[in-house]
Amino acid sequence: MIALILAGTRPGTVNRAQTLLCGRPMINYVITALRGESGSARSIVVAGLEAGKFESDDVKVVSGGADMVDTLLNSVATLSEDTGRILVSTADIPFLTAPAVRDFVDRASRFPDADFLYSAVIADVCRTAFPDMRRTTLRVAEGEFTGGNLVMISPSFLRRNEATIREAWAQRKSVFGLAKMLGAETMARFLFSRIFPSLLPISYLERAVGKTLGGVSVGLIVSPYPEIAADCDRTEDIVYAERWLQKKAEGKI
Fold first, then answer.
1. String of b and e for 158-169 (b: at least 16 CB within 10 Å)?
2. Which residues, at least 6 apart from 10, have a Cβ–Cβ distance to it below 8 Å?
3. pTM score, two decimals?
4. Is the pLDDT of residue 173 over 70?
5. pLDDT, tens digit, for every residue of 33-60?
6. Which CATH number goes with the domain that contains 226?
7. Is the per-residue pLDDT at 27 higher than 90?
């Protein structure tokens, strides 16, 4: 399986992928997890860094773009037209582990026909594991969830749905904005689900997202591993990650 790490950043901003945590660039933790003990990814593409950095026999670096969507599409353009589904990860999840990756890939294999599989974690699981990290959450019929940073996706799907993906990226931090994209019924369900969560089951959201994306098969994978949802978006997150990883290295976690 090909794994893609999105390491691009906006012009003029610091690239978090190269931030040192306990002496290692943040992206190295992600690469190690994707390689896994049993080879979860047979090859890894890193998009958004300078050519030559972090490259090895199984890691290839390609150029990024003006934003995350451009970086994603630039990466897919380097793959052959018949490439099957790929595993996509962001570069800012330094807590990621090989078991978490393998679990996601195993669960994804149960949906062989899905074009787009995204991840989520029960919000309280993430709060318990990483209490000082702030997360955007959504309450649905099955409980309260926070979005993960692992996705399984087909390159052909990306090429067909560029405009919608760009809009979704622009709204990524707004649950209300994403609901609006999915149509009037979803918006209404979203508004009333704050009082009646049963109005917004995961199965409905899967169908709504699939319809918005042109009738493709979409699935949500609920992971028991909180590390896939703990991304370092803020300076405070990086400080927290440094402390957490140091404690782990000392065997205190």
1. beebeeebebbe
2. 66, 67
3. 0.86
4. no
5. 998 755 556 789 998 887 767 778 788 8
6. 3.90.550.10
7. yes
DSSP state of 126: H
Percent of the chain with pLDDT over 70: 92
* Domain housing 132: 2-249
Give dist(CA 116, CA 209) in Å, integer.
10
DSSP code of residue 20: E
Amino acid of residue 98? A
Q: What is the DSSP letter of 56?
A: B
In whole angstroms, give the CA distance from residue 139 to residue 120: 12
The angle formed by the CA atoms of residues 83, 86 and 88, to the nearest 5 degrees, is 145
* 139 close to 197: Cβ distance less than 8 angstroms: yes
* Nearest alpha carbon to residue 117 among 136, 103, 130: 103
Query: 26-35 and 98-108 are packed helices; what angle lies between their axes, rounded to 10 degrees?
Result: 50
Query: How many domains does the chain contain in total?
Result: 1
Q: Residue 37 has what pLDDT?
A: 54
Mean pLDDT value across the chain = 86
88 phi and psi angles, rounded to 5 deg? -115, 135
Structure tokens at 210: 């699939």
Burial zone of 252 (CB within 10 Å; 0-12 exposed, 13-18 middle, 19+ buried)? exposed
Among residues 144, 118, 103, the alpha carbon closest in space to that of 218 is found at 118
